[in-house]
Amino acid sequence: QVQLVESGGGFVQPGGSLRLSCVASTSIFSMNAVYWYRQAPGKQREYVAHITTGGRTNYADSVKGRFTISRDNAKNTVYLQMTSLKPEDPAVYFCNVNYFWGKGTLVTVSS
To answer: What is the C-alpha separation between 74 and 65, in angstroms, rounded?
Structure first.
């Protein structure tokens, strides 16, 4: 069983930055694409970004140019660097690989 643990969420003002981390209990990240999703209250979970085993990345249009996904296979960790955070970014952010999900980390953006 693979466990994913997200961290790094918190409270930030609009325009601020946060870096989320997702740590896996195994080396599963080195063999699979890893995804970040988010879910705001009352809304469906939505795709944010993903990174392939080869390091290629893709982003939702809503975060393109502001968020950066990266990976450190040696640490079994994937990161999501979020900059220029907007009032529409608050959500619980989830890490996903194959059919494994973490419990999420909460991001709050408010002035």
So the answer is: 26
Predicted confidence (pLDDT) per residue in 96-108, tens digit: 999 999 999 999 9
Three-point CA angle 73, 99, 109, nearest 5°? 75
Q: Is 42 left (phi over 0), alpha (psi -120 to 50) or beta?
A: left
Give the pLDDT score at 76: 96
Query: Rounded to whole angstroms, how far apart are CA atoms 24 and 48?
Result: 19
